[in-house]
Amino acid sequence: MYGMTRVAISARGVSKTYAGAEQAALNGFDLEVPQGTVCGLLGPNGAGKTTAVRVLSTLMRLDSGTATVAGFDVMKQGAQVRKNIGLVGQYAAVDEILSGRQNLVMFGRLNGLRYRDADKRATELLERFSLADTGSKPAAKYSGGMRRRLDLAASLIIAPPVLFVDEPTTGLDVQARQEVWLAIRELVAGGTTVLLTTQYLEEADQLAGHIAMLWHGRVVSEGTPEELKQMVGGDWIDLTFASPELAERAIPAVRPLAQGDLHAEPARISIPVAERTKAMLAIAGALSAEGIEPEEISLRRPTLDEVFLEISKKQEVAA
Amino acid sequence: MTAVLRDTWVIARRDLTHWRQQPWGVVINTLFPVMIALMFGGLFGGAIGEGYFDYLMPGMFALTMFFGVEATMTAVSSDAQKGVTDRFRSLPMSSGGVVAGRCLADMMGSVLGLVVMAIAGMLLGWGWHNGMLQALAAFALLLWLRFALLWVGIFLGLTVKGPESVSMVQILVWPIGFLSGIFVDPATMPSWLGVIAQWNPLSATAAAARDLFGNPGAITGSREIILAIAWPLLLTAVFLPLSVRKYRSLGG
Known about the structure:
Chain A is of the alpha/beta class.
């Protein structure tokens, strides 16, 4: 099924600009996902994640470059690609008036199953995704997490070798997110190759063995979650002050303690730090020595934007 | 080929299941034109004169077909917005099946709508006077118009973004309906309005149907029937390829 290679998804120099758009949505996008692995495509809004999925799942034509899925060219062998993929788009794409079971039977029939086989498969999938009790209710009555699970089930009817999952938990509450993660983990255990897009480092960390970071339409960095976390750097300490003048006075005091460039805004300073407790104590000490009382001191993980800014800075330096 | 037929049937069946799950939706959609007919027939009938229902009903049949644009557009745009269309496009199925299924389901809905309207019309005193064959020809012309409007609906459904634009189009349905020979003879309108109304594709089908049913207001001569065949043909020739192109290039 995979031809010569064991690469399930491959993209080389893929570019795509939407009609009328100034910036390219994908700009030299490269990716290689080995068979049976889970790759997390991590990036902020507008980085090109959804475009990448739409191009790879043949929903959209690429402008230049090449891409293969399950060994088939997405531009020239679309029909074969579609036989080998499942797609879980950004919105739970199910018919809301139909029941869960009716949805699965319909998509099963459209996948070429006979009615009886489609019905049998629907029963299996409803069981597997803990929807058996609610299988006969209209999907409109499902909770967000249930609808997402039904959506996942619908994309697994033919047990596709390659599955695309686009931002599976955006807009879901914590519990629903856990449910969806569990469902995806089970898939992965079954040997499906998964390309998952997400805005959350935590989600990529939870589900993917390999993470590619997408920024402005290209992969700027990739590696295991551990490698990326190291690259991402340590935590940040945010200091908030009653006035911009106080903040001005605090900057020289805390600058020597920062592991890298600190970010200063009026009345607010963000300091990258390595060891959280020691840094916290040192900063508190430095401030009290100067007699500056901050409104608030807080410790946090870097935001994805900070991570990408950091990486792109490093890349500029390297270039 | 059998795969296309199977896909078509699966997609059409989905709509039939919708009818079964939400029967009130079907009832309201089919009774709405009946209500309009009662309203206009009752309100204007007195002023316009005796036998207005006999004049009005063929026009109302054409209007019912025209309302179908909204039904098609709403179904198509809701599928596109919710990602259902993308799911269909990512499946190993024929794109022809998706469109043909939509077509089949909407035509079944329109046949049902016409039957209900015809029965309501007969209860109100409307009837055909030129025999069964001509009546069937009139119904065929009405469904031919509906078939053409299907492609307009699919094209609009794939083009509009969000529910706001859907209601925009729903509002536009009315002036187009009024500016035609559906409710009154265009000859009674101010001359420039009358010309526009005369050229409205709905007028051609309504006039041809009046002619074939033998209802008052019929313009004898084959011109109306030729127009009632030509207008939908032209609409189909324009909007069918546009819809196919739009479907293929969804999202660029």
